[in-house]
């Protein structure tokens, strides 16, 4: 359900008419070569479109209008091969609503020291042409990513890919629909927020539905559909004996399959790409959807438990960014601490809903009591997360702005086998260490729910936050509480002042 082939990136080269046709033809040729070179070098299935060299305000306005109109265009890459007086960019940039990357590169990597003449100098003017362009974009207060270096360098291309992926998530977020079954968990603060402001800022809409709406779909599921889904379960998971064919609790698995199919049909029919549930509002459903949520998340849906629509949208965005990459992405919750020794750890999990894309081994399909919510025992997948680098991201509503907080972590093996814990889980050591990370997270007002990813590093989230124009706070191995507290105070001033303008 996520196909990055649907997205286009437009490569825009700026110049001016003073250079004459011969130079402009060369600029065009170089621009086409760079576009093709990038398209061939990056391992991402998006499409690159080389646009005609822009030399006046009228053509820039037209192009920016076209970019806004295009559903496929997910972002624009700007390159100033020559000097392009920036006043001609003002009107177009003012209209532009798509993410921008300023590629500050040069067609030739090396200066031909022995042969360089004024002709060469006049063609290869990125060094000052890019500064003129940068000036106007900064003066207009437009967020963008600036990449400096030779366009064939792997390091630069890696950073470009991160931005491309974040831009796809930005495009996906605009028009995204989130379905909420039930409200927020009663009295919880952090999962609440301003849905109207979120729609303005992120472009997604959040609407509530009664469980009765969903039950209508689960009631229509045929035996054939259920049987073929049960076969999939048997192929993909290790079923506990009671859930196997003729097992004592097989009927609970059939019920779980029915919920999965009903939920899937509901989401597909309504064009939803994210959803939330709440164990407090499940009238009409026999068991809390566990397996269904886990599998739909794996298919690419965003999810937030207890009505957490902000995290559902964030998980969806992280799924889009990481589509096709190694490592999974899941809804997550900081559940329990291990506070002994130097490597203090977090055990992350949820009552049920952790995505099997992060599993280290074939998940086991089990049934256990929920111990909260007073419903029938739900079926769920149980596994440990893969070890290695990962991150947690949270978006909270601070009242006058949305804030994203990201913490880089190392996922480790649980020190001992968790024989009695009947849920999927990840054990991690936060960076720089648990006391600093959790203090910073708490001071920043970060949520207990997060989007957890083994596929993304923090730069993806930083690019995404910049495009959205939301606050971004990173907790990693460079974080100290002294500096972090200052950043919080300074940001408060910044956002207070920004509101006044
Ligand atoms: Mn929760």
Explain this structure to me?
- The chain has 501 residues and is of the alpha/beta class.
- The chain is built from 15 helices and 19 strands.
- The strands form four sheets. A six-stranded antiparallel barrel has the order 11-12-17-16-15-18. Strands 2-1-3-4-5 form a five-stranded parallel β-sheet, sandwiched between helices.
- Strand 1, helix 1 (21-41) and strand 2 form a beta-alpha-beta unit.
- Bound molecules: manganese (II) ion.
- Residues 305-306, 333, 350, 449 line the site of manganese (II) ion.
Key features?
501 residues, alpha/beta, 6-stranded antiparallel barrel, 5-stranded parallel beta sheet, 15 helices, 39% helix, elongated, binds manganese (II) ion
Itemize the secondary structure elements and their pairings.
Blueprint: E1 8-14, H1 21-41, E2 47-50, H2 57-69, E3 73-80, H3 90-95, E4 100-104, H4 118-123, H5 126-139, E5 145-148, H6 154-173, E6 177-181, H7 195-202, E7 205-209, H8 211-218, H9 223-236, E8 238-239, H10 250-270, E9 274-276, H11 291-298, E10 302-304, H12 309-321, E11 329-338, E12 345-349, E13 364-367, E14 379-382, E15 388-397, E16 402-412, E17 425-430, H13 434-443, E18 449-453, H14 458-468, E19 471-475, H15 481-500
Bound molecules: manganese (II) ion (MN).
